[in-house]
Amino acid sequence: MWKSKIGSILLVVAALGIGWFVVGSEPKFASFIDGNQNVKLIYPTSTVASLRAEYPFRLGLDLAGGSRLVFSADVSKTEPSEIGAAMASLRDVIERRINILGVSEPVVTTEKSFTGGEYRLVVELPGVTNLDEAAKTIGETPLLEFKTLSPDYEAIVAKNQKILEARAALESTATVGADGVVNINVTPESQEDLVDPYITTKLGGGQLSKASLQFDQTTRKPVISLQFNEEGAKLFEEITGANIGKPVAIFLDGSPLSIPTVQQKITGGQAVITGDFTPQEARNLVGRLNSGALPLKVTLIGSQVVGATLGADSVEKGVKAAAYGFLLIVIFLIFWYRLPGVLAVIALSAYVAIMLAFFKLIPVVITAAGIAGFIISMGLAVDANVLIFERMKEEMRAGKTIKEAVSLGITRAWSSIRDSNTASLISASILFWLGSSVVKGFALTLGMGVLVSLFTAIVITRLFLISVAGKQNGRFARFLFSNGFNSGK
Amino acid sequence: MFIIKNKIFFLTFSALLVLGSLVAVFTFGLKPGIEFKGGAIVTAQYTGVVPEVEQIRNEAKNIGLGEVSVQVSGEKELIVKTRTLEEADRPVLAQILSVNGAFPYTEKSFSAIGPSISKELTTKSILAVILVSLAIIIFITLAFRGVSKPVASWKYGLVSIVTLLHDIIIPAGLYAYLGYAFGAEVDTLFVVALLTILGISISDTIVIFDRIRENLKKKISQSFEEVVGISLSQSFVRSINTSLTVIVVLLALFFFGPEPTKWFSLTLVTGMIVGTYSSIFVASPLLTLVEKWQRANK
Hints:
Largest interface: A-B, 78 and 71 residues
CATH architecture of the domain at 2-25 and 307-481 in chain A: Up-down Bundle
Number of helices of chain B: 10
Helix content of chain B: over 70%
Helix content of chain A: 40-55%
Number of strands of chain A: 16
Number of domains of chain B: 2
Structural class of chain A: alpha+beta
Oligomer: heterodimer
Strand order of the largest sheet of chain B: 2-3-1-4
């Protein structure tokens, strides 16, 4: 008896601990108040994200807002053995291009279609709702740009460095108040915008006619030679002429590839990029510059954009539905099953805490369908309890004491519990295996729910029941353990 | 016993519902959504005046996007569906929605699915339906493998499958009607709803059949009908209660839940209610009918 009582108490404490983790690891609102007492949120992507707890709920694009683009890659000209590598380098390039967009936490994945040999690239951009711009940036030919340095280059770079340092400092000086709100002492310097120290010129990949791989005569290092068309040659002549003795930066996909210093005015439209690359890297680069495109040609075959307001609305409604659903089950359990019902409510609360903790720790990306799966799983989670309680009622009717009824009820209900959960688990696993991302979210939460509920409904409720069912067998005790319209006689 | 005595009434009621649903499915048809058909769908929220449906349709025709379907959704909101879009069609779409810039709007959501993705989703969905059905049939066979007299175990399985068909045809019929009346389209979530119903509803039937077999072993009565009747009265409360907990959460999901899962939760609620009803009022009465025919044919 006392063993099960201690066990029950330990379980309750453990459940409370998990619940505390779920609530405690939620990000709190960070207050940004500028000099004019206006709430300001300027660069929430890096600093604030790290200030947030380590385990936030991960919301899918349909809830957080953002866009999802699915591209089909043309692998018809690639050797089958090289497709994997080509797809990987495609992903790398696209990732680099997305970084130009400044998206926080983009997800780029490659996948093979279920039927036939279509290779796909899936790009998820949280917070980006301008699909056209995103699609353009991603699908465009490599962004080869020539930039000159701003006259105040040194000063700007130094200033940028200071702003970044000031921003980083915010993190270390931030304090968490007693109310859990993160307070950040925003310094004016950290609020300033970064300035681009480069000046974009008109010269770029558009005027390139040919790129080739060469080796430097003296250093034996690979260099890339560029040949411009007529317009490019003229532009290049102008740029080099105006910047003799100064550096000109060559950018590829948004990051500087090399910043050579101009020795003299170059006519004829020939340029050489000397960078720190291996022969293989240089060869790939040349290939890309020549094909004028990505490692593989991509076409947009599917896209989805969810506005931030729609997503937020879905989250709010999903949480509301879950809360009402929980409440309805609680009312039903307590009114119909009395004392065991109360125990089942505690077990259900533990279930919710464990599930939410799993969502955070695994982490599970929560979608609208996932919320639906979770809500349904709450209803399924108490099924096992209902089966046990009904069986107990029968045993008590057959003249057993409360204690006997509890242990018999649990043993005899097991086969029904096993069978009814097996079927749900079968459906959930097949759906998870086959489903699209929407379906997967639902199947995962439902399947997890079935497994976790087996634990909460059987282990937790069982221990509670045994520890509560003492030797007493009076009328009132029997009433408490009965259910429905029974008085427990 | 009441249920078994009046089984003809309940079975006829169910048969009528199934018939009605089949008629709905065949007359209204199940409208495939863009996930299966390919195409694009935009939800536009207008900042000012909302254009007339005709204006948008004409604009689309003039520009050469062909027929588009326009649906009024809530205040200041239109849902526009088009054929599969090429990348170049996107700016055109903005022009159509704003009727050449006359009606400013913001895009609440946009979704486009090309032919290769819709083809794959269709294949996957069909495969999922086949696999789940097969798995459930195997599961039923295993669950009823202990042969018990007087009805062979495979007949329990057969009755369960008939019941399952009943449980998914009725929500499908309702969905066909929803499609006709409110434009609900068949998406992957609809398929998921049906498959989830299969999983949950079979367990209800199994719980009751389990009880029948237990009582048969105990030999509580000579008459098969009476054994079934007693088993039903012993287990129908739990059967209803286990479903009730799921039904209440689904109702919460339908009434308070997010927009994208509205039809999904409605389909599931219908399936759950029908499934609970069928495990009590259809499966067991059918079982007694099977036993009766068996005796008559001896």
